[in-house]
Amino acid sequence: MRKAIFLSVLLIILITMSLPVLAYDQTGRLGLGYRFGIHSVMKDPWAMKFMHGGEVRFGLCPYVSLGITGTYGRTDGGKLNLSLVPPTFVDADADDAARLDLTSYILEIGPVFSLMPNSENINIYLALGAGFGGWSVRDINGNQVKVPDLKGNLFELGDQQLTVMFGGGLEYYLIEEFSIGFSARYHVYTSLMSKFENDQDIGGSDGLDIPTGLFEAGVNITAYLGKCKDDDKDGVCNDDDRCLDTPENCIVDEFGCPIDSDGDGVCDGRDLCPNTPPGCKVDLNGCLIDSDGDGVCDGVDRCPNTQKGCKVDRVGCALDGDKDGVPDCRDKCPDTPTCCKVNADGCELDSDNDGVCDGCDKCPGTPPGYEVDKDGCPTGYDIERERIMEDVTFTTNLAVLSAKAKKALDRLVEALEAMPHVELQIYGHTDNTDGFEWNMELSRKRVDAVVNYFVEKGLDKSRFTTEGFGDTKPKADNKTSKGRQANRRVEFHRVN
């Protein structure tokens, strides 16, 4: 029965060790434990009985701890029959006055190996140890039993020997500082330092079936003292810390990661300006950077080089009340009409000095002395977008301006002088009296005659472009004399 229990416990330990689980790292911490369960010396007639013990464990590194364990247990069920050769322990009834108790005690020190030490809840471990153990036999009154040696001298039935231990177990952490678990150990009496030698051998060598080892299995309760390993000193143990390189003084969450309430990249605890608006760039202390000093932080500021002293809008751009392109802080003429062009001081430009600002002036370059309307154009003068001057006609096959034609052109010259910004396209036409090539050449000569006349009157030739169409675009019927006369014409088209 005892061997079956021993093998079952050993099998449970081996299966448990194969589980893919991890445990808390207890490096640098002191564990104080209590064990209780069953024990057996694995020999008849001694019964399997209750045991308890204690343990002190110190974590050297995540995988290794140093443990000191103590075990104490008492069992009964046997008595000593000295009449037998050799003397033998035999079964004893519960009410037998000769019934004896076997008391065992062991103290050992050795390493404890955590197989996978990085889980939050479970630790599987192997334990080795060496130390000192003993046992003694007492009667029902608590007196130590004495037996004769080979010389007939009585000695107390008990022994002390050096021991070695191997075992293993599992512990489950209810919290990081407290665990419960199960363990099994086997302690071997090595016979080193034993007193059962020579004349104290009862009935000769190995005459008495004394204990050679002790098996124990039970429940462990362990409390861990001291601080866990916390490399970045953020108050969260390495086992739980998902951010192991947290900067100094950062406030962290339950997982050890820095809290950054305003999302500026500087953790709470180091952030001297904890309510940074979204999008703002900050310095190492978490305070706003405002390179141009306009009160709008870099990152939000769309106009990062605002002149000092200028009032700005919410995106850091200088206010420009009259929308003239000159910020209010530099604008010496703050109520400029929207269409006006301005100088660097925000004041209206009026290149022709006619009282209507550039940009609003539809007739720029008006000569001095002309009265202009609200659009800056001289009053009393007008040049239509398209004009056919009835009086500017030509004799058949000629490109010479008549006196009547010149008089008509003089009225246009006056308007062009008053409105020097106007440019014209001049088109020449003929009737179909002669051939195509001659008519094309003649139409070009006629518009050239008009342009030359304008130049003679002092107008800039660059204001005019010309083109001859010959008889390709008649205005009237070429079958009649009146129609042909109408087709010998010049058309004026205003470009601007």
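the 2nd protein, sequnce then structure:
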Amino acid sequence: MTNSKLIALIFSLSPLEFKEFGRYLKTPFFNRDKKVIALYNFIRKQESNIKSDRHRVKKFEKELVFKKVFSNETYTPRKMRDIMSDLTLHLEDYIVWKLTKEKSYERQQHLINYTKEKNLEKFLFQYSNEELKKIDAEPIISAENHYKKFTLLKDLFYHSSNLKLKTSNKDSLLEIMEQLDISYLISKLYYAGTIYNRKFLMNETFDSIFLLESITKEIHNLSLKGQEKIELYFKNFILLKTNEIKYYYEVKSILFRKANEISRKEQQTILSLLYNLSYIRRKELKTDYKEEGFTLLKFGIENGVFEENGILPQQYYTITVYAACQAKNYAWVKTFIDQYTDKLQSKFKESARGIALAYLYFGLKQFEDVIGVLTTISFEDLSYKVRTKCFIIRSYYELFIKGKDYPIYNACEAFRIFLRRENSYSDSLKKEYNLFIIYVKRLSKTYEEKGNGMDILEALQKEGNLSFKDWLIEKAEELSI
């Protein structure tokens, strides 16, 4: 039962929503079945248990739940399925009711459709015009808003009470077409850019995209003044298609200037693209790529671009710390950790803060502090486990070459065994980390034997994908002097 859709939906509710669902369920207008309420009450009493250990709660075995709901009746799987299905349907109805109540556009659209079906013309036009004003007042310019406007204007234009042939309606028809065209162009360019981005990052191949060449040629000849959203996605697409660095700066400029008109999700997508490109095209940038990458992520952090309902996802927290340390903005990192750790989900706070401090201490060359902070935290996240082991090995090496007795070879062997036993990593990733181990051991051996690291340096420069390649090259160069 704990793996059912019912329990999964209940899991998605906040405590306040779960209580509100109970009030909804006990309202006779929505439900008159006392058995459904009995099942809800039993789940409510066990809510904390099931949320703490979802897969092991014996109290949620169907036979035991059945006994609580149906008292002395004989257990039948069919009856249990039916009562669970009934409660699930009520929960789905509650979710739809709540979303409709909270989302003004959907609520207004229902009213518009109702007045249209019932021929309440006066109120149809009233509700439609109210919604049009709301869309026009929206600061975010999106394909969805233009399409909403197109739908509203189209329905008004073709309503039976509207004299379509009146000369005064010519402008209305032109506006309908304009809203449809803008919505289509933004969407076409956005998804074309997404396709080319996948091609760029993953070497995926695609068939030619219908009408794309014709559309982009036509846009080249248009004035896009006042249409920054189309300009943004057009230049974003051209950037991905041609790799011309001038478009990188044009896309970045529009994003930074017009951020208040671009949805948070779209800003995330573009910032991620620019961040990746700032590294890949680093030799062509006007500024140091490390500083450039940090500037992009700092903009996203300070403008709340990466947050979801006030929660900062751990991956953005970690990569921001990494980028800031790469750019040597250590004072900013300290402030960031103090201000943004509390924005993480509770279960990630300790481990994400530990990794962040490791990046900071490593950048400040406080290697013993790196080891100290990482050995006191138990990491569950697989990516954090690997980073922890790499941080400790690199810190051991840095201390080892300063003459301190740290078990560098033991740490490398333990990491190698960990990678062999762990099945969650891809073969290519395991290969990268095993290469990392090999090079750390070669560097350590060369240092011990007072050898020259030139051979290691030449081998590293020929490597393709390799974890911590820049650091390994730096250490090989130190041994080559």
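Residues 105-184 form one domain. The first helix runs from residue 5 to 12.
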